[in-house]
Task: structure prediction
Amino acid sequence: IGIDGVLIVDCPPEELLDFSISLNEKKIDTIYLVAPTTPEKRVKHIVQKGSGYIYYVSLKGVTGANHLDLKEVSSRLKLIRKYSELPIAVGFGISSEESAKNVANTIADGVIVGSALIKLMENAESENKCPINEASIFIKKLSEAIKGI
Result:
């Protein structure tokens, strides 16, 4: 049907049992978030309910902020990996080529860039530039940084 997964935010797995079963029947992954403040017992529960990948929220603040603590993120990913073999993608706080490269090459299986991309597209629109072109350039730079090109 063109959908690989559904990112579940602000709703605990216990509240989504029927929904998760329906997704699973359609071979659609249920992707849950784990935060820096999530207690270990809760981490274990959440990651065992998810599929596809785990989205780790790398900051306690707002998305797109640029003060990522790689040591803390690395420590939390090790905790998550105790309970799940799913890939872990890190989001929040990744807004530059450098932060994407640092996260991708040292601690995570994937990098999620959202707010920086939206902001770039909004700025492009206000500067009479093509948002899609600007986004493509930005994504290519992120990809090259991650690959070390």
